[in-house]
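Field reference: sequence -> structure
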Amino acid sequence: MQWANPAAADADAIGLWHLTAIGQTVVTGLVDPDYPRALAVVGSVAGITGDVTITGTNMAGETITETLALNGTTAKAGTKAFKTVTGVVLPVQTHAGVQQVETATAAGTVTTAGRAKCVITADGMPGSPWHVPFDVESGDDANDIAAALRAALAADEIVPNHFDVSGDNAEVVLTAKTSAANDDTLNIAISDGEGEGASVGVTTAATSANTTPGVADDRVSVGTTDVLGLPYRSAHNTVLAAYLDNTQDAGPTVTVSATALELNTIDLNSALNGKAVDAYLLV
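Structure field:
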């Protein structure tokens, strides 16, 4: 028999989800394997635990279920070949994610009205370091400077896509939209502008404070392994030889079952790579 082009194993081929404080049952947005094959689960950070239960069908269209225990970032592979995936039951989170909070404090008294400058540096933000100009008036104090900057940041074309803007008095606060690992590069720099029309009197504050470090939330993915399903129930290993891209495999691992079709599988010694797989077996 032949599998024309089985793709390489893919850790999130079926789906990737954020865990929450409540268990979830996913029945939409699931992607079926390219060929009937065994699946695997893996977490995004160390220490994630809990069971993931996968439901689908085998090559005969029979409903099958497999429960796999999460072990942090170590993938846990199943033994059943799924043709389709119709549901995934996810556990509750082990770690709660935290949105990073960065705080800058404006200072100074404006003696010449004009354009001041803020530079936002953030990993993954387009254009970083991103320059945000804002206008200040003569006599503005720290609170006024901060208020003008907060308004400019809230109206900016880039910043609000990644951060919520807030703050009181002289503070300018950016809160990440999503939970993620702490971004050590995140910074809010405030100063007078440059060149014609620049303000005078805004005290340079080159660095901001990481007031709440970010923590990534738990994510779990279900993906494919290199183990392909065989279309026959068998009490014995009858595979004579297997080939990947017309090169004989050094020794595939074959698992058989006379009762459960989904437990009849073949795992080549070589990793799948989108090339044809041929197996010669007695039926």
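Note: The chain has two domains: 2-95+218-281, 101-212.
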